[in-house]
Amino acid sequence: MNPVTEQVLRQRIVSILRNVPDEHLVKAVGVLAGNGIRAVEVTLNTPGALEQIARLRKEYGNEMLIGAGTVITGEDAEAAIRAGAAFLITPCVTEEAATVAREAGIPVYMGAMTPSEIVRASRLGADIVKVFPCGSLGPGYLKEVLAPLNGTPLMAVGGVAPENVGEYLRAGAVCAGVGGSLVSARDFTLDGWELLLADRSRRYVEAIAKVL
């Protein structure tokens, strides 16, 4: 298993960073790290995403896992890897991105929803299959899918909150990806956003610890 994926599986949570203002980026990731969340993905539909990935890699080095999300094309994958992404996360099954990741030795966590898509993603070499949108499917869906597809590492993404992250993990997810319920662009307009982010981070980490 790729050592990056091993670390993700130990963490069991990836923070999805979308549209985080540049002026707050490094501090926000520092708050996450200081409260137990050490894997983040910067979505490529964030303005300046590649620069943000490169900046975080320079700032945090090996202290944090910095990946790229919303990777769809081969060109996306190549650009993210050049920027320093340690892993790639896609919203859909994409052979182009899988090929680039495999050739570069970078893990890819590929988005899928149906059993057929999950199987195809696995066959294309996905290190983890991201089941999205989980908020519309629920933990029971993962449990049902894993009955015939046992052994497939699934990542729950979409609608994962501190109150239900444990349910997804108990249903069989190996980890979870968390977006706006942890880090929202709106938060940075508020005074004291650091305290808000720290509190949310701790709630996720504590909920996950109860399942371990």
From TrEMBL:
InterPro entries to which the protein is assigned, alphabetical: Aldlse_KDPG_KHG, Aldolase_TIM
Organism domain of life: Bacteria
Pfam families cross-referenced by the UniProt entry: Aldolase
Gene Ontology MF, one: lyase activity
Lyase recorded as keyword: yes
Cross-referenced SUPFAM superfamilies: Aldolase
Alphabetically ordered keywords of this record: Carbohydrate metabolism, Lyase
Associated pathway: Carbohydrate acid metabolism
Entries under PANTHER family matching the protein: 2-DEHYDRO-3-DEOXY-6-PHOSPHOGALACTONATE ALDOLASE-RELATED (PTHR30246:SF1), 2-KETO-3-DEOXY-6-PHOSPHOGLUCONATE ALDOLASE (PTHR30246)
Subunit structure: Homotrimer.
Family: Belongs to the KHG/KDPG aldolase family.
Protein name: 2-dehydro-3-deoxyphosphogluconate aldolase
